[in-house]
């Protein structure tokens, strides 16, 4: 969301009521509360970036305008956007990209979202199916 906003994209975010304020802080222009609104209310979009997969990915693919792009890191899409393209990729460390992201964090242009910092012993519970944490979960390997 933050990177898309930085390059001038109009960002539509989805989530639950509790996510609305945080999404606005991260640069979301329009927020759809999936507890009370339909994803389809967003209308057609140029690009979908999905990190969830499953039903939400399938529903999102239907919103990509002709010639648009569906990007996902969750799973290869089963449904492709009409007259568009779908991109599935795995994240690989890249020194140049990591340096660029570090600079953006240092400059305050990018704000990492940490949802929880937990001891390694709680890893299974932290990543249990259905567990929702806004932001990233950091596992602490050793005490400070």
From TrEMBL:
Coiled-coil segments on the chain, per record: none
Domain of life (superkingdom): Bacteria
Database matches in Pfam families: ADH_zinc_N_2
Spans traversing the lipid bilayer: none
InterPro entries with a match to the protein in the record: NAD(P)-bd_dom_sf, YIM1/Zinc_Alcohol_DH_Fams
Protein name per UniProt: Alcohol dehydrogenase-like C-terminal domain-containing protein
Organism: Mycobacterium montefiorense
């Amino acid at each position: 969301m933050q990177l898309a906003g930085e390059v001038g994209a109009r960002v539509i975010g989805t989530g639950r009521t509790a996510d609305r304020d945080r999404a606005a802080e991260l640069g979301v222009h329009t927020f759809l509360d999936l507890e009370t609104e339909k994803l389809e209310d967003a209308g057609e979009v140029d690009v979908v970036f999905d990190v969830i997969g499953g039903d939400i990915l399938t529903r999102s693919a239907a919103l990509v305008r002709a010639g648009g792009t569906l990007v996902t890191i969750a799973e290869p899409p089963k449904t492709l956007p009409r007259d568009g393209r779908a991109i599935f990729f795995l994240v690989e460390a890249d020194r140049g990209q990591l340096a660029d992201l570090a600079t953006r964090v240092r400059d305050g242009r990018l704000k990492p979202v940490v949802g929880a910092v937990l001891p390694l012993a709680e890893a299974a519970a932290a990543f249990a199916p259905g567990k929702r944490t806004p932001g990233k979960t950091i596992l602490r390997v050793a005490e400070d």
